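Hi all, long-time lurker, first post. I run a small reading group and we've been trying to get comfortable going from sequence to structure in the token notation. Rather than ask abstract questions, I figured I'd post a concrete chain and ask someone more experienced to write out its structure so we can walk through it together at our next meeting. Sequence below, copied exactly:
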Amino acid sequence: MRLLFLGDVMGRAGRAAVAAELPGLRARLRLDFVVVNAENATGGMGLSGAHAAEILAAGADCITLGDHAFDQREMLAFIETEPRVLRPLNYARAAPGAGARLFDAPGGRKVFVAQALGRVFMKQPFDDPFSALDAALKTAPLGGRANAAIVDVHAEATSEKVALGHWCDGRASLVVGTHTHIPTADTQILGRGAAYQTDAGMCGDYDSVIGMDKLEPISRFVTGMTRGRFEPATGPATLCGVYVETDDATGRALRAEPLRLGGRLPEVVPGVE
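-- Answer (accepted) --
Happy to help. Here is the structure in token form:
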């Protein structure tokens, strides 16, 4: 199976890049399933129902969220009506929606998608992501109910992401980090067959401070004072993510490559053999 995961969509620039590039990528890479993290797609904080619909219409099969899952209050109701949008497994227990789901893919195949929030350096005391993912992955074992499984680890600490990657190895086809918005250079296949990258990067304008217009973040670092609101940068966006090919029978990754397209970063686009 050919899978693509796109990192945090950041504001209008990120949404525009997804709308412009994802349809062509689906055809060019002959993709079977696409997951997009979109928790920053609406004004840099959260996701609205209308913007979720735009991203799904562009070719996403599933959208994951994160610690800003419900910053847009309408998502509290929208997520109950749209099963293709997932919030973190270990979010507040009363939160609406689901944190994992089994999806249909072409040819009668099944893809399991789950998301968990890290706890290190995060502002809220979320539940344990290790036990949450352990329980979720047991419901859709590779080679059983699922032909492939994708885990989005939305976390701040690199060490926690790496540990969760190894925790899920052998039970997931791809474990990929989100939240820190900078694509890492460690794309690999772990010992038991899980593709892994510590952070997918963002789909946003990299002439910025992790997607936000530079002036306000720099001012806060220099002066320690808040002078205005953070606003998403609006320049040309780079689409960042991870491309994976898997074995349908075992769910193990056979190939894993980073993807960077457009904007300011050097382009890295997988070839198709």
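A couple of things your group might point at:
Helices lie at 11-28, 49-58, 75-81, 129-138, 158-168, 215-223.
Residues 11-28 form the longest helix (18 residues).
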